[in-house]
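Chapter review. Work through the record for 30S ribosomal protein S1, chloroplastic-like isoform X2 before attempting the end-of-chapter questions.
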Amino acid sequence: MASLAQQFTGLRCQPPSSRFPEKRKRTQKVGAFASPIVSAVAVSNKQTKDRRELKKMFEEAYERCRTAPMEGVSFTLEDFQTALEKNDFDSELGTTAKGTVFFTDAYGAMVDITAKSSAYLPVQEASIYKIKHVEEAGIVPGIREEFVIIGENEADNSLILSLRAIQYELAWERCRQLQAEDIVVKGKKSTAEELLGKDLPLKFVEVDEEQSRLLLSNRKAMADSQAQLGIGSVVLGTVQSLKPFGAFIDIGGINGLLHVSQISHDRVSDIGTVLQPGDTLKVMILSHDRERGRVSLSTKKLEPTPGDMIRNPTLVFEKAEEMAQTFRQRIAQAEAMARADMLRFQPESGFTLSSDGILGPLTSDLPAEGFDLSDVPEAEDS
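Structure tokens for 30S ribosomal protein S1, chloroplastic-like isoform X2:
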């Protein structure tokens, strides 16, 4: 039996193309799609390259953050800490905070105070007075005010603000100032029927913020006012009521009587033709009985010429202080003349009066030339 090699000697194999014609055609068909496959491979390679570069970039950034986090950064840790301290918000109760109103409704207002949570101003905390809407207190969107933190809403951690607390503090401070300066204020009394709605002069006696207690006194204000009513002084008054015998004038909480005979040098038959309730005028103090609480007034002494109070009351008002000064000088001169007459008959007093009307001392305590009373006019009959 011939060997296997010998059996195949001389045999010639056909090329694959002749032996497998269908496969050639198939290969040609596949070749038609060769270009898109190459393109897809190229795109895939580019994406892979981009991913590698991005990964490398991230790795480098991570390494910089780990080894040199502040390299190339101008904002230092100290700057950051300073900024935190500067903008640190204190939300403790009782602290004040400035904020801007950005929303209002019938119940209150929302306020931006740069805190972590929102802030709310209830309508009852918007004013020291009772109001129905915050806008009645001037609280509108866009306005910026200083508020005080009075609480926190546990439901949403929002802060509760107040303006009323600040206004109360300012009011107490003003009361303490008025008490220290002993200032007379006016208030309306609503308990006594005869004083209902009437302005009364008052002075502070006690200001106790801790006990929410204010004590004022009309008697103290009246006593201090009466002490300032010097005879011959001019005060501003308001006509309260008219009577057949004169007019009652309110002079700083004290009622004085302007008798009909003291209105003008000319006869006044009907007071209503000269004065009306509510009129403001200047009057002179003629007398003051502190025990009985009576003050007598005059406009007659303030007339530049007799009858001006009837014909030209504006002139009397304008010239009141000038005419009062002239009247006081005449009174002083008349009193000096009366004292001089009395001393003429009392040589033991230590004074002497010459025939020329010169009142001189018998001692060296007074000027040697004495006091010249020769020009003292006679006192007017009041």
